[in-house]
């Protein structure tokens, strides 16, 4: 893992939320869901009283959590995160890892500042805080790779455990510092099918 998606695949993946009309349709759908506020579990602070950060748990449908930031003034989705559990364990850890199957945030002038720091806050405060272990998805865009490299760097600075695992043999290796991350990135990410089985890992000690 993670195999790199090409630019067209990345565009297709985000088309629904990038398109203004489809984004508003998603906004209306999320407003109807019976979710709960995520704010008590994260350090992220809303920049507007018109914003709402919510999560919906759907484990019966195979979706552990959906998280979204809504702008009720613009009737828009500013951030979306689809989280699932994976079906394997890592090292001697008893907790089941989760992965962010899809993560998107608005980067336009109107919304970019509204979501600044949200990706990192949800990842460390909620995913790691609640589930203890997160792994990268089997296919990622270039933005996804950059995000994970940043998250691993932050995890190392925070004194967390970062590493890589090969699903072919479930062999795990720690990433103790930035030097090792630089060397490991070429092993983790690439355009061959073998990269689907190479996972980046972040977990609580």
Give the biggest beta sheet.
9 strands, mixed
Measured between the Cα atoms of the first and last residue, the distance is 23 Å
Encode the helix/strand succession as letters. Answer: EHHEEEEEHEEHEEHE
Which class of secondary structure composition applies to the elements? Answer: alpha+beta
What integer value in Å does the Rg equal? 17 Å
Amount of beta strand = 25-35%
Poorly predicted ranges (pLDDT <50, ≥5 residues)? none
Structure summary, number of beta strands:
11
Share of residues in helices: 25-40%
Mean pLDDT: 87
Tally of contiguous helical segments: 5
Could you say which overall geometry the principal axes of the C-alpha atoms support? globular
Order of strands across the biggest sheet?
A: 2-3-4-5-6-7-11-9-10
